[in-house]
Design goal:
By secondary structure, the protein is mainly alpha-helical. Helix content is about 40%, strand content about 5%. The protein contains 9 helices and 7 strands, in the order H-H-E-E-H-H-E-E-H-H-E-E-H-H-H-E. The strands form 3 sheets. Strands 5-6-7 form a 3-stranded mixed beta sheet. A two-stranded antiparallel sheet has the order 1-2. A two-stranded antiparallel ribbon has the order 3-4. The N terminus is likely disordered.
């Protein structure tokens, strides 16, 4: 019995540690870039996948038609991921690099879900009893370096682009995550699309809501990554107001505290989304 209890405690501790948000810790190797470069990266194959399988909703999270993805299109997605790993990313400017890393992150996430599908949550994907998702495993190799999803998000994107917008671009295949864009990011559209995603998220129930007691409840993203949004309730609320619609912004202006946080890790599966439209 004591061994069983010990195992349960260990499982809890591991699970808790796994869910703790990693800090933004720059991997200096990825600082290289060419700001004068006008070269672009071809994301057409990934863009075509998104346009075919991402369903946009006005009053619900965007869904992915995982059950409809053909073997041929899944293979094309894998080929795209392979091609991106051969890109010499140091040769591009910062906007092209940012689009590249977000697309690669999201494409790999889609691929991992498809490999495991059907699955209830991305947290069910991983190796071993104590796994709580695929984020730590280094599935990729770019310019000779092995990379995980965590590496891309927390050691490249967040520490290089310190504007909080990264969180509206990378997608964790969950209902409470900012929407997976129905188009691929490029150097030309990355900043615009990230801001559009931020507005969509902040003005959705996944981003923030007021409960029956009129308490302000916001996404756990703003708790896990508070430092990226100002690291205080007032700073986070100020960030939310930047993207909120006028009436919501006025309502937020009367708030100085966040009462609670929430998050739904259910898979962003179009087959299971209740759009209520």
């Amino acid at each position: 019995m004591r061994g069983f209890v010990t195992a349960l405690i260990a499982l809890f501790l591991v699970s808790t540690a796994a869910m703790a948000a990693p800090a933004a810790d720059l991997w200096p190797r990825w600082q290289a870039h060419d700001e004068d470069s006008t070269a672009t990266i071809d994301h057409a194959a990934y863009d075509a996948f998104l346009r075919n399988y991402v369903v946009e909703h006005e009053h619900a999270p965007n869904g992915v038609r995982y059950d409809a993805v053909s073997a041929a299109d899944h293979a094309k997605l894998k080929s795209y991921i392979q091609a991106m790993q051969k890109v010499d990313i140091d040769d591009y400017n910062r906007d092209v690099q940012r689009a590249y890393w977000i697309n690669l992150y999201n494409a790999l996430t889609l691929d991992l879900v498809l490999d495991a599908y059907p699955v209830d949550s991305i947290r069910d994907i991983g190796d071993g009893l104590f796994s709580s998702g695929p984020w730590k495993k280094r599935y990729l190799r770019v310019d000779g370096e092995k990379l995980s999803l965590n590496d891309i998000e927390h050691r490249i994107l967040r520490p290089i682009w310190r504007d909080g917008l990264t969180h509206y671009g990378v997608n964790c295949a969950s209902l409470s995550c900012p929407d997976l864009s129905a188009k691929g990011y490029t150097g030309d559209n990355v900043y615009t699309l990230l801001r559009e995603n931020a507005r969509d998220y902040v003005n959705s129930a996944a981003g923030l809501a007021f409960n029956d007691n009129d308490d302000l409840v916001v996404s756990k993203i703003y708790e896990w990554y508070g430092k990226d949004f100002g690291d205080s309730d007032r700073a986070i609320i100020s960030h939310l107001r930047r993207f909120a619609d006028p009436m919501l912004s006025v309502r937020l202006d009367m708030r100085s505290n966040i009462e609670d946080y929430g998050y739904d890790w259910s898979l962003n599966d179009e087959a299971a989304i209740d759009t209520k439209e």
